[in-house]
Amino acid sequence: MPRKLPPYCVEDVDRYGNVRIYVRRKGLPKVRLEGTPWAPSFMAAYEAAMAQDTPPLKRVGNAAAEGSWRWLCQQYFASVAFGGLDPATRSRRRASLEATFAEPVQPGSAQTYADYPLGRMTPVAIRVLRDRKAATPEGANNRLKAIRGVFKWATSKEIELVATNPARDVGKITVSTDGHHTWSISEVKRYIERHPKGSKGYLALCLLLFAGGRRSDAVLFGPQHFEGGWLRYTQHKGRNKNPMTLEVPVLPVLAAAIAATPVTGTTTFLVTHAGKPFTSNGFGNWLKDRCIEAGLPHCSAHGLRKAGATIAAENGATVKQLMAMFGWRTSQMAELYTKKAEQKRLAHGGMAFIDFERSGDLLIK
Question: Rounded CA gap, 9 and 11, in Å?
């Protein structure tokens, strides 16, 4: 069965029997498309034709026009799928999507994406929204992830508000960085000089460095998670859809840090100045202040988790051991650490082979 043409495409047969394909939309001149339907050159011409300005959909009062981008997002916000997300994830995703409503369709255009027809939400349009935040690649990729979430929901068999998912064909911006700075041993020691054993800052460092959890886990750790020399907890990340429970032994240094800290909460070891449990973001900001106090403004909570993984890998931890310690579901992340550690070990042994004195042939005098 032949594949259907993209939306707004029509076929016309000229007097010689030749089939011609046009993009035809109300209020705009039709545009002929050359080439074979769905071929790369054809789709490039199609997306260029679809990128022309169209009159915005009409709305009544402040309500979103039905069939517009904002309308689809509002349906998503009211859905069971969106409601089932973690509260912090819902807040971030809503903010990211609502920010797209004010984006102009083209620089200087009065038309924004709020009233943009869904038929015009092509991969080209979504790339535009992604690239508007290209100065902050992580922000651009988070925006793309949010848009993907909307279309994945809207194209599901249970919903079927739109026929295709244009965001699926839009890739993330490549980020040429290792992400959060990995703490060095000297930086850990410098931090401890400012926040010694017995302080809340020291306990926070130990919970992140020696327990293997993320900051969203560390803020939830309490006496109920520690028993018989083991830490048992369900990871905060993915707990709604695919929960993963971890059991890791409690290292003596962590047990000593907990015992030495006089001020703890009833259900969580770490509490705010008001005696309440931290939120993940609030804790991240609080720890950043402690890092600044120690003269380490480039360090962060997540960088401590990376430091723990780096130390473990350099001391010989295997991929499966790292996965079990840090709760990674696939080997991809663990392999990054083991490969770096292996490179360092091999280089350490191999550099001796270019030692001038060892070779007995001094080229530099």
Answer: 7
| In the block, residue with structure tokens 């971030």 | 92
Backbone angles phi and psi of 20, in degrees to 5: -120, 145
CA distances from 32 to 3, 16, 40, 53, 288 (A): 19, 17, 16, 17, 57
From the centroid of its chain, how far is CA 82? 17
Lateral strand order in the sheet of 31-33: 9-13, 19-23, 31-33
At the topology level, CATH places domain 56-169 in: DNA polymerase; domain 1 (1.10.150)
Mean pLDDT of 306-320: 93
Which pLDDT band holds residue 85 (cuts at 50, 70, 90)?
confident
Burial 160-176 (b: 16+ CB within 10 A, else e): ebbeebbbeebeebeee
In 3D space, the residue among 347, 365, 176, 205 whose CA is nearest the CA of residue 290 turns out to be: 205
Whole-angstrom Cα distance, residue 250 to residue 259? 13
For residues 26-36, give the mean pLDDT: 79
Say what the pLDDT of residue 48 is: 75
Element (H, E) at 269: none
Residue pLDDT, tens place only, 127-158: 999 999 988 888 999 999 999 999 999 999 88
Where in the chain are the domains?
1-52, 56-169, 185-349
Tell me which residue has tokens 């700075």: 181
Rounded Cα distance, 315 and 342, in Å: 10
Residues 6+ apart with CB under 8 A from 310: 182, 337, 340, 341
Residue 53 clears pLDDT 70, i.e. is over it: no
Question: In the CATH scheme, what is the code of domain 185-349?
Answer: 1.10.443.10
Q: List pLDDT tens digits, range 231-267.
A: 999 998 877 777 899 999 999 999 999 999 886 667 8
In total, the chain counts a number of residues equal to 365
